[in-house]
Amino acid sequence: MPLFPQSFIDDLRLQANIVQVVQEYVPLKRSGRTYKGLCPFHSEKTPSFHVDPDKGFFHCFGCNAGGDVFKFLELHERVGFQDAVRMLAQKFGLTVPEPVEGDAARQDAGLREALLKIHEVAAAYFREQLELPAAARARQQLRERGVTPQTIEQLGIGYAPASREGLKARLQKQGFAQGVLLQSGLILQRDTGESIDRFRNRLMIPICRDTGSVIAFGGRAMDADQVPKYLNSPETPIYSKSRTLYGLNLTKQAIRKVGYAVMVEGYFDFAQVFQSNAAQPN
Ligand code: ZN
Known about the structure:
With 282 residues, the chain is an alpha+beta fold. It has 2 domains: 6-91, Zinc finger, CHC2-typedomain (DNA Primase, Chain A, Alpha-Beta Complex); 107-278, DNA primase, catalytic core, N-terminal domain (DNA primase DNAg catalytic core, N-terminal domain), CATH 3.90.980.10. The chain has helices at residues 6-15, 18-23, 69-77, 81-91, 102-130, 136-144, 149-155, 166-173, 178-184, 248-258, 267-279, and strands at 29-31, 34-37, 49-52, 57-60, 66-67, 158-160, 187-189, 195-197, 202-208, 214-221, 230-232. It has a 5-stranded antiparallel sheet with strand order 1-2-3-4-5. It has a 4-stranded antiparallel sheet with strand order 6-9-10-11, with helices on one face. Bound molecules: zinc ion. Zinc ion binds at residues 39, 41-42, 49, 60, 62-63, 65.
């Protein structure tokens, strides 16, 4: 059976506001962070049907119906997943891509899963390196920039040591094959055929999807003569630079609450703004 590419489904889920979709069928009332109304899937007089816009889920405590925005349409319109996708795409103005064949889609999903796992291991590795004696200068630079230990932890900032094969060795130990390591963009192959860590001697800033999964890194040079000053992950099956807004995973709730966002240029500009807002009692 043909399927839509996972990246398209992810995009659509992000675009399709579940409250807006549900409200076309069910009158909802705001109740704190969530919305509630009378369940359309069973008969009731007091509302036990809840919609959580942050998580993108609905749930009924009466009949236990629940799921994401696609599931809601499937249940309510009595259509299959693919038709629910088409209906939502049309509603939110997204062009439906050519469906891919089942095998290809499964392979695609398997690869994306492996790439996410690699980034999770890499983020932990870089954080761990920042604690070691060899990272004294990196910690010093963060202090000089006024980045507090708490912000370092919240943003998951780490350090890529000068070693050429530190991360590669860690990932190989975890059993990742060479091909998928190269596709992650974290390991690169030289003309000589030898493969090495892309990021060396850099402060490492994880770039996350809005759900918090790490999908890429930005690496800042440690030395004045080190080029480029900022080295970023290349585009991969899980990372599209133009579709990713750095910091959205940490700020989306606040943005939703106040109804606007302030954009700044760099990771450390973000760190400063984030830190000064986090320090204020709300
Ligand atoms: Zn119900």
